Amino acid sequence: WVDHVAVVSSNGKLRARRPTAAAAAGAVLGEPVAASDDQGGLVHPSEEFAAQALVSSTQQYQEMYRRSIDDPAGFWSEIAETFYWKQKWNPDEVCAENLDVTKGPIKIEWFKGGKTNICYNAVDRNVEAGDGEKIAMYWEGNEIGQDGKLTYSQLLDKVCQLANYLKSVGVGKGDAVVIYLPMLMELPIAMLACARIGAVHSVVFAGFSADALAQRIIDCKPKVVITCNAVKRGKKLIPLKDIVDVSLADGAKNGVDVGICLTYENQSAMTKEDTKWTSGKDVWWQDVVPNFSTKCDVEWVDAEDPLFLLYTSGSTGKPKGVLHTTGGYMVYSATTFKHAFDYKPSDIYWCTADCGWITGHSYVTYGPLLNGATVLVYEGAPNYPDPGRCWDVVDKYGVTIFYTAPTLIRALMRDGTEYVTRYSRKSLRVLGSVGEPINPTAWRWFYDVIGDSRCPISDTWWQTETGGFMITPLPGAWPLKPGSATFPFFGVQPVIVDEKGNEMEEECSGYLCIKKSWPGAFRTLYGDKDRYETTYFKPFAGYYFSGDGCSRDKDGYHFLTGRVDDVINVSGHRIGTAEVESALVSHPKCAEAAVVGIDHEVKGQGIYAFVTLVDGVPYSDELRKSLVMTVRSQIGAFAAPDKIHWAPGLPKTRSGKIMRRILRKIAGRQLDELGDTSTLADPGVVDQLIALGDS
Length: 695
Ligand code: ATP
Ligand code: MG
Prior knowledge:
ATP-binding, ACAS_N, AMP-bd_C, trans-cinnamate-CoA ligase activity, 695 residues, five-stranded parallel β-sheet, 20 helices, EC 6.2.1.1
């Protein structure tokens, strides 16, 4: 039981315990600012929900959590035993770790000596348990009326056929395969087929440019690239195969020759005849894969054998090739999925993330399937043909768990509630959010409007590097606070440290680190052990450093304040971007906000805020003053923005995160230093902002 985690006092309220002098060290980082713009306080799960929940009280959580910290080997072994292992791990090597660079190289190993296969556990095991006829995946296409589905037995057949094909062209254990596919069922099928034969998949989001894809191909040197000819997202046609061709040519110039480009014909987007083709290298999926047997032996791999390589989204610079291994990741992704969403076998689960991101790995493919869940895979854009599409889909399939990102919530909020209320949404029971801090106002809207004030929201904080949820509500176990990811998952020991690496207790604000390893932790950055140690383990010796800021309130709830690189220092006050943005978004006319620091003669740094307004609201000087006033009254005069910049759109990564790196340059008028803007979802936004800044 770690010191700072809340305990329940006699009145049932969560309280941090043991006030110590260390709490005062929080002052080193400046005054903690109000983390929430919400005056309503705690949001309790209904009695009905709590009664049916897997973990239904704080006390039950605390007992489980305490055990996971006191006896991690015992705790995780018991869970691991519920999976199939060809050979059990060495009982005295459940976890071997060194997280302290001063004591030698960083090492994290779980279930060493065990042999298993994640594809077998995610697919075969469900069929063998009698769930062969259960729907593993529903698929909803870009256009209304396009859909499909696969039972677990059918999924197994498809995975085996592709695995056999890959083996036939020489892909084996340890070989890399790059997957550049949109959200077709073939994407998770391809991931599972690689895992089945011990190949290492590297999914590249099919919205990335040829340059970004080439960079990844050159880094991991795949034997095969799997793609499709084209995809339609909304009204836009994206010729994926053409993009792959450019990347492969680029790879070849850099000495990486990929022999095969396996191409799925996505008929609804483009025909075979219209697809450019290089015979010898290019192979149509539909021509070869169905000819292979639907039986394929499993390659039993070591728990510590690599499962996949995934490049982070690059919000902060050059993407990092995050490497995950098999055993620990399997146990962790499955367990976090089950608890954070209070999963039940009757659930229909929809996560709007693309498999090109870690969320799509852990919570579209592996986590849900390892639990035998029914997953919805959606190909299109969430607001196509109109902003009501998500709720149309929810009603069509009877979705019970809906997991998405704040960026989508804010966009839908701006479009107005009438798109929501025209659908029933009565099947929903749990909501989830990931990717950025969720502003309390957006949280409220998600809760009140989408969930009709009856569905708990799991605001899950985690990273590509962590493999699974780290700080997350267990819906039903404790009351929520809008904007807070609440408490740590089993086995996770988050600590908030000051600049010198001292752990702080009680109410505080600082750098979020993790003490001790957890099974889902990444094992290295591919080909760059130095960067792995320097980025994550050197800043605070003995800890994994997340790169994020966090504050903890008097009740022990965790509030993520944004990336520490983005923290703004105004006259010695360290201000997280999330707080100021949340205050701005609480203004009824502000739909989205992004703040950055600019040089300021007196204060050191000043606050520069980009704001997007609710549809139809004109920007005016009066509105500017009212926005500034909102921040002053909610946080304090020291956090009042020095400049408000009206932004019809904000630069975002393809995963929907605001790119403050670029906004900082626009704010500081360093326009020749914008850096790489190719990973932006819409690079045109940048020119628009520059022009408005001049006006
Ligand atoms: P890069 O590391 O390449 O800059 P990235 O950090 O955006 O990219 P991800 O691993 O996809 O790539 O995102 C993890 C980050 O997203 C976290 O470190 C945090 O900043 C943010 N994040 C994710 N979930 C939450 C959440 N629930 N609340 C607040 N922030 C979140
Ligand atoms: Mg990151």
